[in-house]
Each structure stands twice: as C-alpha cells, then as structure tokens.
C-alpha cells in the first residue's frame, strides 16, 4: 500500500514538473514582431512583469517537484513537504491568475480604460501565451491533486489513532 | 492547551473575515467619474472582470470564515476544513494576483502594448483599488497563517504516534 502511494506521488510530481517546465519554456520563447500602420510592434514576455513572474514561478516549481521526488518518506524533510507544496500551489495560482488577467486584456482590451486588444496584431504571440497558460493550469491542477491527496493521507492515520 | 488553540483559530478566522469583508466592500465602492480632454471617463470595478472575481472571492471568503468558527472541533466537518482552507487560500491568491497585475498596468501602463496608465486621470479610484488590494493581501496572509498553523497542528500528533 505504501509502495502504491509512493508511486502515485512520484508520477504526480513528475507530471507537475513536466507541465511546469512546458509552461516556463513556452512563455520564455513567446516572441513576435509585426508592423502596424507602418509602426513596428514587438511583443515578448519580458515586457510584462506578470509574465516574468510566471516564468520564475514555474521554473522554481519544476526544480522543486524534481527535488521532492528525491526526499525519503518519513525523513525530517518530508514533514516540511506538505507546507512547501501549499506555498508552491499558492504561488502557481498567483502566476496563472495574473497571466490570465493580462491575457484577457490582451485579447479583449478594456474600452473603459482605453486599452486596445493587441492579439489581432500579434496573434502568434497571444497563442503562445495561451499555450503557456494552459500548461501552467495543468501544472496547477496536478499540484492541487498532490496537496489534496497528501491532506487525505495525513488525516487517515490521525483519525484511527485520535478519534 | 486545546482551548488556547481553539481561541487562536477563532481570532484568526475573525481577522480573516474582517479583512476579506473590508477588501470586498472597498472594491465594490470604488467608483470615479472624471473628464479627460472633454471626454467623460468613468471608472468602476465592474468594468474589469478580474475585479468582479476579486469581490466574489473575498465575499465568499468572509462568509466561509464566519461559518467555520461555528464548526465543532473533532466533528466530521472539521476534517474537511483544512482542505477547504487550502482551496480558499488558493482562490484568494488568484484574486489578489489578478487584481495586482491589472492595478500595475493601471498605474504604470504598458508602452509595448500601447496601454496608457489611467491612474493620473482616476487617482481616487486607483487609491481605492489599492486599498482593497492591501486589505485583500492582509486576509490572504491571515489565511496563509491559518493553513500553516493547521498543518503544524496536524503533523504534531502524527509524529508522536507514527515515528
């Protein structure tokens, strides 16, 4: 039973690492230059602070996920894993939400603020950001499952010895 | 000892509820109309989807925090509280991050996307959104403390009976 749990944990960690790596890489490589009424327009992730945060958050989550696979169950470090999982889960949520909010403005604009949509001009760039967002969302869902699974596992033995 | 823990938990929940209520109310009441080069400009939270999400998320967090105070420790419902705390924590992180990302664009603009800063024109509105963001951040920090405290409490007896 313990072996099955360990296997599920490793598979979920590797899936999270893969999705997080994909999210960071797709975002870093999102770049497009186009001309608009004779003006050259360049779009890249580093022009938006939230997208830089997205890349850093998912790169850290990828490395963290791979490191946690090496942690021996029952060790002192393993007791801190659930806490750091929750922190990583919250950071990834923040990165996805901030990127999602700005992507929505990029796609639809905001007429009240006078912000025009830019995805008509830099279509390819927007598609890549959307790809990064989807990969990031997958990593976030996997992290959510890891946290819920860990909380469930932690509550089970507690119930049998305390209630 | 159990009474002290219960008291700490209730104080944290009430603090979270108060901060969440403040965040939602300040955001809902943020509204300003100004004229800019003869054009009337109106700014209110409902013009931005992320700000609506912010209000809903913090209103739900406020009601949830008050309801959890009523849950009896050791009951079946109490076992689900930590899981729902983590979900609320993640939702609040998303709301703060999305609102923060858009507020940053509102304040500094984004020259590469051609989005001008609007806070020069609607200064009062921006100040209120910033106030909501600060109150929301306080609620988020309190939720983070609640989750970390609960995880610590959950790990303690487990250590004594399993390691």
UniProtKB/TrEMBL annotation, chains A, B:
Record's GO cellular component terms: plasma membrane
Domain Casparian strip membrane protein: start-end pairs: 5-141
Protein location: Cell membrane
Membrane topology listed for this record: Multi-pass membrane protein
Transmembrane segments: 47-70, 82-102, 130-151
Pfam families: CASP_dom (PF04535)
UniProt keyword terms in alphabetical order: Cell membrane, Membrane, Transmembrane, Transmembrane helix
Superkingdom of the source species: Eukaryota
Subunit composition and interactions: Homodimer and heterodimers.
Family named by the database record: Belongs to the Casparian strip membrane proteins (CASP) family.
Protein name per UniProt: CASP-like protein
Organism: Eleusine coracana subsp. coracana
């Amino acid at each position: 039973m313990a072996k099955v749990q360990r296997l599920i944990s490793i598979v979920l960690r590797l899936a999270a690492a893969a999705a997080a790596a994909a999210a960071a890489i797709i975002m870093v490589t999102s770049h497009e230059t186009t001309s608009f009424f004779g003006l050259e327009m360049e779009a890249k992730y580093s022009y938006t602070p939230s997208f830089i945060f997205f890349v850093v958050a998912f790169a850290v989550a990828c490395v963290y996920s791979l490191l946690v696979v090496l942690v021996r169950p029952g060790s002192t470090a393993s007791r801190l894993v659930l806490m750091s999982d929750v922190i990583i889960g919250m950071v990834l949520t923040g990165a996805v939400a901030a990127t999602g909010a700005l992507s929505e403005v990029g796609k639809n604009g905001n007429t009240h603020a006078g912000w025009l949509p830019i995805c008509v001009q830099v279509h390819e760039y927007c598609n890549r950001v959307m790809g990064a967002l989807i990969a990031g969302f997958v990593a976030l869902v996997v992290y959510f499952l890891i946290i819920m699974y860990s909380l469930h596992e932690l509550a089970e033995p507690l119930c049998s010895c305390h209630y």
